[in-house]
Each structure stands twice: as C-alpha cells, then as structure tokens.
Automatic annotation (TrEMBL):
Top-rank taxon: Eukaryota
Molecular functions per Gene Ontology: zinc ion binding
Annotated protein name in UniProt: GRF-type domain-containing protein
Domain GRF-type residues, every copy: 21-63
Native species: Linum trigynum
Length: 137
C-alpha cells in the first residue's frame, strides 16, 4: 500500500473541494492495488480507526464537488456579472486616471505660479534693497 497516513501529511496535499465526512474533510490517498495503480481517491481520515466504522470512499476522478453541480445558467449569469463588474472597474480606473492627470496638470501650473511669484518676490526685495540704500545715502 503506497497510501500515506493522512494525519501526518500537510494541508497542501489535500484537494480544496474534497468531500467531508466525520465533520472534517477527507484525506487524499493514492491507490496501490494492481487493479487501480496510482489512482487517487478520497477516504475518511479515520479509515484506520476501527471504532469510527466509517468506510467513506470515492475515486477523485468520479467525485464531483458541489461547485461543479451548479447549473450552466447560473455559471453564465455569474460570468455576465463578472463581465459587468470588470467593465465598471475599467471605467472607474479610466476615470481615476483622468482625475490624476488633471491633478498633475494643476500641480504643474501651481509650481509654475509658485516659481513666478518667487521671482517677483526676489525682484521686489532687490527693489527694496536699492530704495533702502538710497534712503541711507
Ligand atoms: Zn468518516
């Protein structure tokens, strides 16, 4: 038997949508029989425990998780919904991009204004300095 003991294997060896029995998800095992060599199956994590008396067993390739049972229409509707939210998200991203560009333009013109005002201020200071020195003369 090549199957590993489920209690010692890490969580990532489990399938995400594996079946549940005994309140907790089943363990994934690999068959070592001549008839089904290497075929994966789920079974109760207490399969070794004779007190549990649980003989839950299902081949992975025959197991259909609940999500797969959803009707095609439901999936189509979900797809439409996702398309719609994608479209809305794209529009929102476009809107934010435009708003950002506007802010950038505003920032640039504010910086230009600031530079102009500093130049003016410098000129005024120079003028005052000249006036000051004339008054003292
Ligand atoms: Zn069980």
């Amino acid at each position: 038997m090549s199957a590993r003991d489920g209690s010692s294997s890490s969580a990532n060896t489990y399938h995400d949508s594996r079946p549940i029995c005994h309140h907790c998800p089943c363990i994934l095992q690999v068959s070592g029989t001549d008839k089904n060599p290497g075929r994966k199956f789920y079974c109760c994590r207490y399969w070794k425990d004779s007190n549990a008396k649980c003989k839950f067993f299902v081949w992975v390739d025959e197991y259909k998780p609940k999500v797969w049972k959803e009707s095609e229409d439901e999936l189509k509707n979900k797809l439409i919904e996702m398309d719609e939210s994608c479209r809305v998200a794209r529009m929102e991203a476009e809107r934010r991009k435009k708003a950002k560009n506007l802010l950038l333009e505003e920032l640039i013109s504010t910086k230009e204004d600031h530079a102009r005002m500093e130049t003016e201020l410098r000129n005024l200071r120079n003028m005052f300095a000249v006036l000051d020195s004339r008054i003292k003369m």
